[in-house]
Design goal:
By secondary structure, the protein is an alpha+beta fold. The chain is built from five helices and eight strands, in the order ββαααβββαβαββ.
Length: about 200
């Protein structure tokens, strides 16, 4: 099973969220935009952050099914990124970012670090052979990060996502270890337009 690892870039440090992060996570996940586009509980309460830090994150690493990192700029937690549903050498990338850190390339750098770890050879990586990205239709901010990372558009799936008991259409893309790491030009026009929250 993979062990929790710290990933360091020029501007961001990725490490597992700790007890000291609980209040910050609870604060950030109260953002309506994060609730709109992710599967975090809504309304988000402090006990959700406690369960996330003390159970969800360590259990994910221990099982080898989910690797989760807090995204930090300096000493400030500004987001979360993970590789989830790890099986048969495939994993799904997911992320969210605090409003004050958006539009600065922070998540793009974090995602690049995680992709390198995901495709890296064992024991210093997961040796994945495919990474997938999924988002609710309309989440152009998430699409921009995935597109910059080199994910290739696969299409829209009607009712492909479930969020809090409801089904929604979703976008899908994927990335292979030897695939080009520059943006593709075949993403649909609506993935470039930020929808209103």
């Amino acid at each position: 099973m993979p062990q929790p690892v710290v990933l360091t870039g020029e501007r961001v440090t990725l490490s597992t969220p700790s007890l000291a992060d609980i209040d910050r996570i609870a604060e950030l996940c109260g953002d309506p935009a994060i609730a709109r586009w992710t599967t975090v509980p809504s309304p988000y309460r402090r006990e959700h952050a406690v369960g996330f830090v003390t159970s969800v994150v360590p259990d994910g690493w221990a099982s080898g099914r989910v690797c989760t990192w807090a995204v930090r700029t300096g000493d400030v937690l500004v987001g979360m990124v993970s590789i989830a549903d790890i099986h048969e050498r495939q994993g799904e990338i997911g992320y969210w970012l605090a409003s004050e850190a958006r539009g600065r390339g922070v998540m793009s750098e974090a995602v690049d670090l995680v992709i390198r770890f995901g495709f890296g050879a064992r024991p210093h990586g997961l040796a994945l052979e495919r990474m997938v990205w999924r988002a609710l239709v309309g989440n152009a901010a998430s699409a921009a990060v995935a597109r910059r990372a080199g994910f290739r558009w696969e299409g829209s799936v009607s009712g492909g996502a479930e969020q809090r008991g409801e089904r929604f259409d979703e976008w899908r893309a994927s990335l292979l270890p030897d695939g080009p790491r520059e943006p593709a030009d075949d993403w649909p026009d609506d993935s470039y337009v930020q929808a209103a929250v």
